[in-house]
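2024-03-11 09:14:02 INFO worker-7 job=invfold-0412 stage=load source=structure_tokens
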């Protein structure tokens, strides 16, 4: 009985971690797209004197992108180590 409960709990945790990995990857892709678009808009505006909305958005998105890149790298390392075992 205890073995069955432990196995089911472990499988649920693995499935939840897999789902979070997919979610983090999709959020990272979306943020990188938004960062590229805002960076391109800031570069094409040409006003270097004042900080436009696109330029400030480009800087703010770094706050969200950097931790997600670390999470993505951890996911990749985890997957590679599982394959190499």
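2024-03-11 09:14:09 INFO worker-7 stage=emit residues=85
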């Amino acid at each position: 009985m205890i073995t069955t409960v432990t196995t089911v709990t472990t499988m649920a945790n693995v499935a939840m971690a897999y789902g979070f990995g997919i979610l983090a990857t999709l959020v990272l892709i979306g943020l990188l797209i938004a960062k590229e678009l805002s960076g391109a808009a800031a570069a094409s505006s040409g006003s270097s004197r004042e900080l436009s909305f696109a330029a400030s958005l480009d800087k703010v998105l770094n706050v969200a992108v950097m931790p997600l890149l670390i999470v993505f790298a951890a996911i990749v390392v985890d997957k590679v180590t599982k394959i190499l075992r």
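2024-03-11 09:14:09 INFO worker-7 stage=report msg="Residues 20-84 form one domain."
2024-03-11 09:14:10 INFO worker-7 job finished
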